[in-house]
Every structure is written in C-alpha cells, then in structure tokens.
Amino acid sequence: MSSNEPANTGRKPRSEAWKTALTVLQTAEPPYIPEGAEAMTVLVEFPPGDPGTPPHRHSGPAFGYMLEGEMLFELEGEPERVIKAGETFWEPGGDVIHYQDGNNRTDSPSRFLVTMMCAPGQPMLTLVDDEELAQRKDRRAPRPA
C-alpha cells in the first residue's frame, strides 16, 4: 500500500447526507420555561370525523407535526384553520384556550405528534368548563358563516 492510500479500518466511509438531511419545518419563540418543567412527546390519533379533545389549555408551549389526515385547529384569539399532513403547529400554552384539535376528515383517521413543555407540578392538559368559556367568549375569533 502506498503512503497516499487511506488505511482500510473495516469501517464504512462516512456519509455526507447529514449536511442536507435537516429541513426546518417551524421556528417559534416560546414563552419562559420555568426550571423543573417536563418535556413530553405524545402521539394523538382520532378516528374519522372525531371532534377531538374538548376545549382545554396546556400548562406550557406545545409544538406539533401533522402525520396523517387533517386537523381542525383553533386557539383562543385566532381563527380556526385546517392543518394537513406534513404541516406544523404550535401554541404558547398557559392562559390560552385550545378550542379545537379534531379530525377534519370523515373518511380517514388523523394522527399528529406533539412535544409539550409542562409547567412543574401542573397537568399537561386541563379541560375548560362551560362557565369559563362563556366568560371568555369575547376572546374567541369570529366563527365561520
């Protein structure tokens, strides 16, 4: 073997794919995350036409990616919108009501992945009762006609 040839160490040559493997899907500036917060990644699956979780809030920010199907998504102060497979979403958590996350399709299931930051000692999800919804109705974006 000449001195210009690399030694055969039995390892595969290192791939260069890592240089182009990363695609940024979303960026967001989350609110302050307190010491002791817990991160949780969950998979949510709803059957066709399922309305999803009742109105609720999360104790910290949530970052999501739609894997399959479509979700009807609505946060307090924002109009409802449809999120399709391959799209991302996020919410700040805290004192913001998450009104809708249901399956927007009646012919196929929906699946999405969410990573949430849970405030120390608080549940990841808290349902909002009808009384609070009525008190905050002025904060909800106008409903579609």
Shape verdict: globular
SSE sequence, one letter per element: EEEEEEEEEH
Strand order of the largest sheet: 1-8-3-6
Instruction: Please tally the helical runs, counting DSSP H or I stretches of 4 or more residues.
Output: 1
Please state roughly what percent of the residues sit in beta strands, choosing from under 5%, 5-15%, 15-25%, 25-35%, 35-45% or over 45%.
35-45%
Please give the radius of gyration in angstroms. 21 Å
Strand count, sense and closure of the main sheet? 4 strands, antiparallel
- Number of beta-strand segments: 9
Helix and strand content put the structural class at mainly beta
Low-confidence stretches: none
Distance between the termini: 78 Å
Give the overall average pLDDT.
Answer: 91
Helix content: under 10%
